Amino acid sequence: MATSRVVDWNKPIQKLLSASYSTFKKDDIPILIEAVQNGEVEILNHEDQYEPFFSSFVALLYKSNVNEVASVCKVLIKFLLKRLQKTEDGCTISKSNIMALIKSLCRGSSSLPKSDVVMFTAQLKSAKAPSSGKLPETGIFTISVFNL
User: Fold this and answer.
1) Would you say which domain of life the source belongs to (predicted)?
2) Is 0.85 topped by the overall pTM?
């Protein structure tokens, strides 16, 4: 059965971008967790034009300690394994970085070099966000989520 959930991508994006050069605040984690949980269907099954956005988003989540939440880790690993099996054209994560991110999720530690973090941050800033075009100043997007 499908239900609509509101995913405000601006909040988690702001948290990821503000913490990309430093560490996350404890208050940021619930916002990121909620975005991944509510946006699972969209993260895993989106239009090709949003691949750069979601692949950069997933790549930057590794530093946030969301891997401590099993439901979030499950979504991120599904996303990364799908990209490892079949690389999408717009995917911004190399196969070696996919492996490093999977390792990070499994071990609970980060393993991407700072240069990759800077690259993913720049890519996320310029990526086309779902339902918008560019990253909007404010806005809320409604998506369908399937409850299993």
Assistant:
1) Eukaryota
2) no
